[in-house]
Amino acid sequence: MSENEKSVTEAASAAFEGVEGAVGLGVDIVEIARMRRILERTPSFREKVFSEEERSYCESTANPEVHYATRFAAKEAVLKALGTGFSRGIANHDVEVRRNAKGRPFVVLHGRAKEVADEQGVRELPLSLSYTHTDAVACALAITEESVRAQEERVNPMEELAKQFKEARSLLDEMDFTAANLRDGGKGAVPGEVSALGGDALRLCERSLPGAPFGVVFLDPPYALDAGEVSRLVGLLASSGQLECGAIVVYERSSKAEGLDCPGLALAKTKTRGITAVDLHVYEEDPK
Fold first, then answer.
1. Contacts of 88 (CB under 8 A, 6+ apart)
2. 8 Å CB contact between 213 and 248
3. Does pLDDT of 58 surpass 80?
4. Which residue, 3, 89, 154, 286, has fewest beta-carbon neighbours within 10 Å?
5. Residues 155-185, buried b or exposed e (16+ Cβ, 10 A)?
6. What is the pLDDT of residues 217-266, one digit of tens each?
7. In a 3-state reduction of DSSP, which class is residue 178?
């Protein structure tokens, strides 16, 4: 890669660094003088590489070599964005550059190039063409369905936190969550007093906590925390006698994450809304 191409690639990458997900970026630079020499030396190069529509447009301009160079750079940039180059059975005519009614260039894929793009889930291929008195430059971006979803899901962290809290409260309200609904014969009441302890949850649960045994436990860990760690926490509470028989255990998690797997813990109900799921369990003691 030449220094010019490296600089252009870095600039393009910086411009698109906010786009998440599977996105392919391709940049290519072609020397206009070199393209002129190729066209003069090998006239058949036009038919071999460019479509009839591409040739018609280039030949209608005052400097055909400039526009042939930009289109050749575009073909290379598109295939770099797809991660293939001219391989996997892709031919020169499989990538075509056309112009819309306003003169803006866009990409049309044919044959094997189209198959590869479909396999990768590419839904858009924005293209930018430019040139100086010496070089033609093309930049292409392969945007997939995954990258579009990732971009749509990007939210302000504080807004997301507030949203999750509202969703969890709403889900609990819909469940008509009361101890009497879930416990055998309605024994035990939801505690009227609540206390908070700071520290590592796993270490805290290894010793007897104030207020134990508990009749209600609400688990709201970071979504990135593995469900196995949360199950271990519940297991520590149970094995140390800090869970009442019939205790209600509420677990808020990502709707994409696994639920709890803990002996004696029976799933009573699950509600899902958006990215949030809330599981209600009843602790029936480890049957062993």
1. 112, 116
2. no
3. yes
4. 3
5. eeeeeeeeebeebbeebbeebebebeebbee
6. 888 777 667 788 888 888 888 888 888 888 888 888 888 888 888 888 88
7. coil
Give the whole-angstrom CA distance, residue 56 versus residue 71: 13
The tokens 């839904």 sit on which residue?
A: 123
* Under 8 Å between Cβ of 98 and 110: no
**For residues 280 and 176, what is the distance between their CA atoms, to the nearest angstrom?**
11
CA 37 to chain centre: 45
Rounded Cα–Cα distance for residues 128 and 26 (Å) = 11
pLDDT tens digit sequence for 131-152: 999 999 999 888 887 765 655 5
pLDDT at 150: 55
User: Is residue 171 helix, strand or coil?
Assistant: helix
Phi, psi (degrees; rounded to nearest 5) at 114 = -65, -40
Q: Please give the span between the terminal C-alpha atoms of the chain, in angstroms, as a whole number.
A: 65
User: Global pTM?
Assistant: 0.49
- Residue 103: C-alpha distances to residues 126, 132, 160, 266 (Å): 14, 19, 42, 64
- Which pLDDT band, with edges at 50, 70 and 90, does 156 fall under? low
Q: How far apart are CA 221 and CA 278, in angstroms?
A: 12
How many CA atoms lie less than 13 Å away from 54 in the CB half-sphere?
27
Residue 247: which of 225, 228, 277, 219 has the closest Cα?
Answer: 219
Mind listing the pLDDT tens digit for each residue in 105-118? 999 999 999 999 99
Q: Which amino acid is at 225?
A: L
Which of 261, 253, 256, 260 lies closest to 278, judged by CA? 253
Nearest-angstrom CA–CA distance, 164 and 157: 10
- What span, in angstroms and rounded, lies between the C-alpha atoms of 59 and 37? 16
Contact criterion met (CB below 8 Å) for 234 and 260:
yes
